[in-house]
Amino acid sequence: MDAVEVAGLRIAYQRAGRGPALVLLHGAYEDSRIWRPQLEALSDEFTVVAWDAPGCGNSAVPPPDFSGEDFGNALAGFLRAAVPERPSVLGLSWGSGVALELYRGHPELPSSLVLASAYAGWAGSLPPEEVDRRNAQVLSELDQPPEKFIPVWLPTLFTEHADQAVVNEVSGIMADFHPAGMRAVLNASGHADYRDVLPTITVPSLLLYGEKDVRSPLNVAHEMHRQIPGSTLAVIPDVGHLACAEAPAAFNAEVRRFLHGLEDRAD
After folding, report:
1. I need a labelling partner for 118 at 20 to 30 A (CA). Which of 41, 191, 195, 213 fits?
2. In 3D, which of 94, 123, 108, 135 has the Cα closest to residue 194?
3. How many domains does one find in the chain?
4. What is the pLDDT of residues 19-52, one digit of tens each?
Protein backbone atom coordinates (compact mmCIF):
# COMPACT_ATOMS: atom_id res chain seq x y z
CA MET A 1 0.00 0.00 0.00
CA ASP A 2 0.98 3.62 -0.47
CA ALA A 3 0.81 6.18 2.32
CA VAL A 4 0.92 9.92 2.90
CA GLU A 5 1.21 11.95 6.10
CA VAL A 6 -1.58 14.40 6.88
CA ALA A 7 -1.35 16.58 10.00
CA GLY A 8 0.97 14.07 11.63
CA LEU A 9 -1.18 11.04 10.79
CA ARG A 10 -0.06 8.31 8.41
CA ILE A 11 -2.89 7.56 5.97
CA ALA A 12 -2.54 4.40 3.90
CA TYR A 13 -4.33 3.79 0.64
CA GLN A 14 -4.63 1.58 -2.43
CA ARG A 15 -4.50 2.94 -5.97
CA ALA A 16 -5.32 1.23 -9.27
CA GLY A 17 -5.83 2.26 -12.88
CA ARG A 18 -5.59 5.45 -14.89
CA GLY A 19 -8.15 8.05 -15.86
CA PRO A 20 -10.45 10.42 -13.97
CA ALA A 21 -10.03 10.06 -10.22
CA LEU A 22 -12.54 8.19 -8.06
CA VAL A 23 -11.88 8.15 -4.30
CA LEU A 24 -13.54 5.42 -2.20
CA LEU A 25 -14.38 5.87 1.49
CA HIS A 26 -15.19 2.66 3.39
CA GLY A 27 -17.64 2.20 6.24
CA ALA A 28 -17.10 1.56 9.94
CA TYR A 29 -15.40 -1.70 11.01
CA GLU A 30 -13.90 -1.76 7.49
CA ASP A 31 -10.86 -0.59 5.54
CA SER A 32 -9.88 -0.21 1.89
CA ARG A 33 -10.05 -3.98 1.32
CA ILE A 34 -13.85 -3.75 1.21
CA TRP A 35 -13.40 -2.11 -2.20
CA ARG A 36 -11.61 -5.03 -3.86
CA PRO A 37 -14.33 -5.52 -6.55
CA GLN A 38 -14.30 -1.82 -7.37
CA LEU A 39 -10.51 -1.53 -7.47
CA GLU A 40 -10.43 -4.49 -9.83
CA ALA A 41 -13.30 -3.51 -12.13
CA LEU A 42 -13.42 0.28 -12.27
CA SER A 43 -9.68 0.73 -12.72
CA ASP A 44 -10.08 -0.06 -16.41
CA GLU A 45 -11.30 3.51 -16.96
CA PHE A 46 -10.60 5.41 -13.75
CA THR A 47 -7.85 6.10 -11.25
CA VAL A 48 -9.43 4.40 -8.26
CA VAL A 49 -8.07 5.41 -4.85
CA ALA A 50 -9.32 3.71 -1.67
CA TRP A 51 -8.11 5.08 1.65
CA ASP A 52 -7.84 3.51 5.06
CA ALA A 53 -9.50 6.16 7.21
CA PRO A 54 -7.62 7.28 10.32
CA GLY A 55 -7.96 4.50 12.87
CA CYS A 56 -8.64 1.84 10.25
CA GLY A 57 -6.55 -0.67 8.30
CA ASN A 58 -2.93 0.44 7.93
CA SER A 59 -3.55 4.08 8.83
CA ALA A 60 -2.55 5.63 12.15
CA VAL A 61 -5.03 5.77 15.02
CA PRO A 62 -6.10 9.37 15.66
CA PRO A 63 -6.29 10.92 19.13
CA PRO A 64 -9.40 10.14 21.21
CA ASP A 65 -10.79 13.66 20.75
CA PHE A 66 -10.68 13.45 16.93
CA SER A 67 -13.90 15.02 15.69
CA GLY A 68 -16.06 14.62 12.62
CA GLU A 69 -14.59 17.87 11.35
CA ASP A 70 -11.12 16.39 11.89
CA PHE A 71 -12.07 13.39 9.72
CA GLY A 72 -13.24 15.76 7.01
CA ASN A 73 -10.04 17.79 7.25
CA ALA A 74 -7.94 14.60 7.16
CA LEU A 75 -9.73 13.57 3.97
CA ALA A 76 -9.14 17.02 2.48
CA GLY A 77 -5.44 16.78 3.28
CA PHE A 78 -5.32 13.28 1.86
CA LEU A 79 -6.94 14.38 -1.39
CA ARG A 80 -4.49 17.24 -1.77
CA ALA A 81 -1.53 14.94 -1.08
CA ALA A 82 -2.51 11.77 -2.94
CA VAL A 83 -4.99 12.71 -5.69
CA PRO A 84 -3.67 15.02 -8.41
CA GLU A 85 -7.03 16.30 -9.63
CA ARG A 86 -10.47 17.17 -8.35
CA PRO A 87 -11.98 13.68 -7.81
CA SER A 88 -15.36 12.10 -7.58
CA VAL A 89 -15.80 10.95 -3.97
CA LEU A 90 -17.76 7.80 -3.14
CA GLY A 91 -18.65 7.27 0.51
CA LEU A 92 -20.14 4.02 1.80
CA SER A 93 -22.30 4.03 4.94
CA TRP A 94 -20.15 5.78 7.59
CA GLY A 95 -17.89 6.86 4.74
CA SER A 96 -20.81 8.83 3.31
CA GLY A 97 -20.74 10.92 6.48
CA VAL A 98 -17.04 11.59 5.97
CA ALA A 99 -17.85 12.67 2.40
CA LEU A 100 -20.51 15.06 3.72
CA GLU A 101 -18.06 16.36 6.35
CA LEU A 102 -15.59 16.99 3.52
CA TYR A 103 -18.23 18.87 1.56
CA ARG A 104 -19.20 20.94 4.61
CA GLY A 105 -15.64 22.16 5.13
CA HIS A 106 -14.11 21.91 1.66
CA PRO A 107 -16.86 22.07 -0.98
CA GLU A 108 -14.33 22.96 -3.66
CA LEU A 109 -12.56 19.59 -3.48
CA PRO A 110 -14.99 16.94 -4.80
CA SER A 111 -16.16 17.20 -8.40
CA SER A 112 -19.11 14.92 -7.61
CA LEU A 113 -20.45 12.73 -4.81
CA VAL A 114 -21.65 9.14 -4.74
CA LEU A 115 -23.33 8.41 -1.41
CA ALA A 116 -23.89 4.67 -1.07
CA SER A 117 -26.01 3.13 1.70
CA ALA A 118 -25.81 6.63 3.11
CA TYR A 119 -27.14 8.56 6.06
CA ALA A 120 -27.28 12.26 6.84
CA GLY A 121 -25.43 10.98 9.92
CA TRP A 122 -27.22 8.55 12.21
CA ALA A 123 -28.82 11.46 14.08
CA GLY A 124 -29.81 13.07 10.79
CA SER A 125 -31.57 10.02 9.40
CA LEU A 126 -32.69 7.74 12.23
CA PRO A 127 -35.03 8.04 15.25
CA PRO A 128 -33.26 9.11 18.47
CA GLU A 129 -33.86 5.75 20.15
CA GLU A 130 -32.21 3.94 17.23
CA VAL A 131 -29.24 6.31 17.36
CA ASP A 132 -28.84 5.57 21.06
CA ARG A 133 -29.17 1.83 20.47
CA ARG A 134 -26.50 1.80 17.76
CA ASN A 135 -24.08 3.86 19.82
CA ALA A 136 -24.55 1.60 22.83
CA GLN A 137 -24.12 -1.50 20.68
CA VAL A 138 -20.83 -0.38 19.15
CA LEU A 139 -19.51 0.90 22.48
CA SER A 140 -20.17 -2.51 24.05
CA GLU A 141 -18.48 -4.31 21.14
CA LEU A 142 -15.15 -2.49 21.50
CA ASP A 143 -14.22 -4.69 24.45
CA GLN A 144 -15.44 -7.94 22.88
CA PRO A 145 -13.63 -10.40 20.61
CA PRO A 146 -14.74 -9.94 16.99
CA GLU A 147 -16.03 -13.49 16.67
CA LYS A 148 -18.65 -12.66 19.29
CA PHE A 149 -20.26 -9.64 17.63
CA ILE A 150 -19.54 -9.90 13.90
CA PRO A 151 -22.20 -12.64 13.45
CA VAL A 152 -24.71 -10.12 14.82
CA TRP A 153 -23.73 -7.59 12.17
CA LEU A 154 -23.68 -9.81 9.10
CA PRO A 155 -27.48 -10.26 8.69
CA THR A 156 -27.80 -6.45 8.73
CA LEU A 157 -25.19 -6.06 5.98
CA PHE A 158 -26.24 -8.79 3.54
CA THR A 159 -29.37 -10.55 2.41
CA GLU A 160 -29.72 -14.28 2.95
CA HIS A 161 -28.89 -14.80 -0.74
CA ALA A 162 -25.39 -13.29 -0.53
CA ASP A 163 -22.46 -15.43 -1.65
CA GLN A 164 -20.99 -17.04 1.47
CA ALA A 165 -17.46 -16.47 0.21
CA VAL A 166 -18.17 -12.73 0.05
CA VAL A 167 -19.70 -12.76 3.52
CA ASN A 168 -16.63 -14.58 4.84
CA GLU A 169 -14.31 -12.06 3.15
CA VAL A 170 -16.11 -9.12 4.74
CA SER A 171 -16.20 -10.89 8.10
CA GLY A 172 -12.41 -11.26 7.94
CA ILE A 173 -11.97 -7.57 7.15
CA MET A 174 -14.20 -6.57 10.06
CA ALA A 175 -12.31 -8.85 12.44
CA ASP A 176 -9.14 -6.81 11.84
CA PHE A 177 -10.63 -3.61 13.27
CA HIS A 178 -8.62 -1.52 15.76
CA PRO A 179 -10.60 -0.93 18.99
CA ALA A 180 -8.97 2.46 19.62
CA GLY A 181 -9.60 3.49 16.03
CA MET A 182 -13.23 2.40 16.12
CA ARG A 183 -13.69 4.23 19.41
CA ALA A 184 -12.47 7.41 17.69
CA VAL A 185 -14.89 6.81 14.82
CA LEU A 186 -17.79 6.37 17.23
CA ASN A 187 -16.86 9.41 19.33
CA ALA A 188 -16.60 11.58 16.22
CA SER A 189 -19.60 10.32 14.28
CA GLY A 190 -22.01 8.44 16.52
CA HIS A 191 -24.33 11.43 16.87
CA ALA A 192 -23.52 13.22 13.60
CA ASP A 193 -26.26 15.14 11.80
CA TYR A 194 -25.59 16.42 8.27
CA ARG A 195 -29.10 17.54 7.36
CA ASP A 196 -27.84 21.11 7.12
CA VAL A 197 -25.26 20.08 4.50
CA LEU A 198 -27.61 18.32 2.08
CA PRO A 199 -29.39 21.38 0.61
CA THR A 200 -26.04 23.13 0.04
CA ILE A 201 -24.67 20.44 -2.28
CA THR A 202 -24.24 21.78 -5.80
CA VAL A 203 -22.02 19.10 -7.37
CA PRO A 204 -23.61 16.17 -9.26
CA SER A 205 -24.66 13.56 -6.71
CA LEU A 206 -25.67 9.91 -6.98
CA LEU A 207 -27.47 8.15 -4.13
CA LEU A 208 -26.96 4.40 -4.42
CA TYR A 209 -28.82 1.93 -2.21
CA GLY A 210 -29.65 -1.74 -1.93
CA GLU A 211 -33.37 -2.42 -2.04
CA LYS A 212 -33.21 -4.73 1.01
CA ASP A 213 -30.97 -2.50 3.13
CA VAL A 214 -32.13 -2.68 6.76
CA ARG A 215 -29.48 -0.32 8.14
CA SER A 216 -30.10 2.65 5.84
CA PRO A 217 -33.50 1.70 4.44
CA LEU A 218 -35.19 3.26 1.45
CA ASN A 219 -37.08 5.86 3.47
CA VAL A 220 -33.63 7.27 4.34
CA ALA A 221 -32.67 7.13 0.66
CA HIS A 222 -35.77 9.01 -0.44
CA GLU A 223 -35.28 11.71 2.18
CA MET A 224 -31.64 12.17 1.14
CA HIS A 225 -32.81 12.40 -2.47
CA ARG A 226 -35.41 15.01 -1.53
CA GLN A 227 -32.90 17.13 0.32
CA ILE A 228 -29.96 17.11 -2.16
CA PRO A 229 -30.80 19.37 -5.13
CA GLY A 230 -30.67 17.61 -8.48
CA SER A 231 -29.49 14.32 -7.02
CA THR A 232 -30.03 10.98 -8.73
CA LEU A 233 -31.32 7.97 -6.77
CA ALA A 234 -30.50 4.44 -7.95
CA VAL A 235 -31.73 1.32 -6.13
CA ILE A 236 -30.16 -2.10 -6.72
CA PRO A 237 -32.80 -4.82 -6.43
CA ASP A 238 -32.66 -7.61 -3.86
CA VAL A 239 -29.41 -6.67 -2.10
CA GLY A 240 -28.56 -5.29 1.31
CA HIS A 241 -26.41 -2.63 2.94
CA LEU A 242 -23.09 -3.72 1.44
CA ALA A 243 -24.31 -3.70 -2.14
CA CYS A 244 -20.75 -3.00 -3.33
CA ALA A 245 -19.76 -6.46 -2.08
CA GLU A 246 -23.00 -8.40 -2.50
CA ALA A 247 -23.76 -7.21 -6.03
CA PRO A 248 -20.53 -5.63 -7.32
CA ALA A 249 -21.42 -5.87 -11.01
CA ALA A 250 -24.67 -3.93 -10.53
CA PHE A 251 -23.04 -1.49 -8.11
CA ASN A 252 -20.13 -0.84 -10.46
CA ALA A 253 -22.48 -0.40 -13.42
CA GLU A 254 -24.39 2.34 -11.59
CA VAL A 255 -21.18 4.11 -10.59
CA ARG A 256 -19.79 3.82 -14.11
CA ARG A 257 -23.03 5.16 -15.63
CA PHE A 258 -22.94 8.15 -13.30
CA LEU A 259 -19.26 8.91 -13.99
CA HIS A 260 -19.79 8.62 -17.73
CA GLY A 261 -22.63 11.10 -17.38
CA LEU A 262 -20.20 13.56 -15.82
CA GLU A 263 -17.95 13.20 -18.84
CA ASP A 264 -20.90 13.82 -21.15
CA ARG A 265 -21.72 17.02 -19.23
CA ALA A 266 -18.14 18.18 -19.59
CA ASP A 267 -18.29 17.60 -23.35
Report:
1. 41
2. 123
3. 1
4. 999 999 999 999 999 999 999 999 999 999 999 9
